[in-house]
Design a protein that fits this description.
Elements: E1 9-12, H1 21-39, E2 44-47, H2 49-55, E3 64-67, H3 71-77, E4 82-86, E5 91-96, E6 99-108, E7 110-112, E8 124-126, H4 129-133, E9 143-146, E10 151-154, H5 158-164, E11 166-167, H6 173-179, H7 183-194, E12 197-198, H8 200-209, H9 218-229, H10 234-244, H11 246-250, H12 252-255, H13 272-281, H14 289-297, H15 302-305, E13 307-308, E14 314-315, H16 319-333, H17 338-350, H18 362-370, H19 374-386, H20 393-404, H21 407-410, H22 418-422, H23 430-444, H24 451-466
Helix pairs in contact: 6-8, 7-9, 7-10, 10-13, 13-14, 13-19, 14-17, 14-19, 16-17, 17-19, 18-23
Length: about 475
């Protein structure tokens, strides 16, 4: 592995072709910045993940630049569009003229000082291109690309590691992980996003240092875990998190699913962990994050509700409600937004209702279809079935009902309101709400031809109540 040579390996690659319009705009903006830096005599390259993606012939999300220019020199070149948000660390954000949403991070070559908090260096000193790459996390991310001649510069062995699909720390793995403990999770994330195997020394250090992950901010842990779950290999991500020891620290509720038996007649696949793992493997490409988390958490309440009947049958009574409360606590701990928490916990709480769908009253079924979370719930149900018995008949039934019923039939405007009830002498309170709910259920079941029919029913309902 090359880590000490003063001269990099150089590889000429084909010119990069951008497919998507939004990426093309970002790329063109980065090229303009590089052009300005080169024109004024500065060394400057595309760096990091975007170079890795270009080498792998995939499309980067963003384009970062590393340069010999100091932050003040960068600011002087782009006086109206530079934001020195990371000036103390040599980082400048350069925004595109006319579109502030398009921006490029421009960082000065640097050496990092000691990482006293396990997150950021205590200070930096400006350095050479080689010194800059030697402080980076993984070899695949420690590449520079000179766009003037389409040449990749590699001081750390990143190019052969990409070719072999190996994730390897730059230099000493333990040092890299201690510098920034989030790299423990990033190693798992890159492995499952890129389809790489984690090199043995890197893996050993990851396992030894796993306990330090608890010092990282919950929001940053949440974001890395979400990227793992939404990667092409979420089931493998779960296994890597478990095998490394990270799962027991970050998500002990999920770790507890291992060894939790299930009734074999309904779950021939095995314990709850195996079921959850199989479901993760059934997620669609690039899934919605709420769906991915709902899959992970849907059976989180099973260990706490495990019981056996006298005949030995395993039961998990009310596990969906216990699980929803546990999911809420977990998601709150990871600082999810209120909307995300409500959406995901609703999916956990409601996932057992699907088995009853073919026998539901029309009103109950329509209310189910009208839930704002129903699309996620339906996909969760489909994946739940694929993760055990494979019977998708209820899923097909609900898809058919969605096709048969339009939005007005599923969730019509109520024919009656609270004022209608109160004019008949019923005060605001539980009884009023109960009457309106009865009326809406009847409306959903097409019991009323029009509003007048609903008013007639209401009068009879109130009279019968007051006799």
């Amino acid at each position: 592995m090359k880590t000490s040579s003063t001269e990099p390996t150089r590889l000429r690659i084909p010119p990069y072709t951008v497919e998507h319009h939004s990426t093309r705009q970002k790329y063109q903006h980065a090229l303009k910045i590089l052009g300005q830096l080169h024109t004024h005599g500065h060394e400057a390259y595309l760096c990091g993940g975007c170079v890795r993606d270009i080498v792998m012939r995939s499309e980067p999300k963003d384009f970062d630049i590393a340069t010999s220019a100091t932050p003040l020199q960068v600011e002087a070149l782009f006086p109206r569009h530079a934001d020195l948000v990371g000036k103390s660390f040599g980082v400048v954000i350069v925004r595109a003229p006319g579109d502030p949403h398009i921006h490029t991070e421009v960082a000065t070559f640097r050496l990092d000082g000691p990482y006293l908090d396990g997150r950021r260096p205590d200070g930096v000193t400006f350095a050479t291109a080689r010194e800059d790459v030697l402080r980076r996390d993984f070899t695949c991310n420690a590449l520079f690309l000179d766009i003037r001649n389409n040449t990749v510069l590699d001081w750390t062995g990143g190019l052969p590691d990409i070719q072999k699909k190996i994730l390897r720390c730059v230099g000493d793995p333990a040092t890299r992980f201690r510098e920034d403990r989030l790299r423990l999770l990033r190693a798992v994330r890159f492995a499952v996003q890129l389809g790489f195997e984690i090199e043995q020394a890197t893996w050993n250090a990851l396992c030894r240092e796993a306990g330090a992950i608890s010092t990282i901010a919950p929001e940053r842990i949440r974001d890395e875990l979400t990227k793992c779950l939404c990667s092409p290999q979420p089931a493998r991500a779960l296994d890597l998190l478990h095998d490394s020891g990270l799962l027991a620290i970050l998500l002990p509720e999920i770790s507890a699913l291992r060894g939790c038996e299930q009734p074999p007649q309904f779950h021939p696949e095995g314990d709850v962990y195996t079921h959850t793992r199989l479901m993760l493997s059934q997620l669609p490409p690039c899934p919605d994050a709420r769906l991915a988390w709902a899959v992970l958490l849907h059976d989180i309440g099973k260990p706490a509700t495990f019981s056996r009947d006298a005949d030995g049958r395993i039961r998990f009574n009310t596990h969906e409600f216990v699980g929803a409360d546990m999911a809420r606590a977990l998601l709150t701990r990871l600082r999810f937004s209120k909307d995300d928490i409500e959406h995901i916990t609703a999916c956990v709480r409601n996932h057992m209702t699907f088995k009853d769908a073919p026998q539901m009253r029309p009103a109950t079924l329509k209310k189910m279809l009208a839930r704002p979370t129903f699309a996620t719930e339906l996909e969760l149900h489909r994946i739940d079935c694929l993760g055990c018995h494979g019977d998708l008949s209820i899923h097909q039934f609900l898809l058919q009902k969605q096709q048969e019923l339009n939005r007005e039939q599923i969730k019509p405007a109520p024919l009656l309101n609270g004022h209608d009830v109160m004019t008949l002498g019923i005060p605001s309170g539980p009884l009023l709400g109960k009457i309106l709910e009865e009326a809406y259920d009847l409306q959903l079941e097409n019991a009323f031809a029009d509003r007048q029919a609903a008013l007639d029913w209401l009068k009879n309902r109130v009279v019968s109540r007051t006799r």
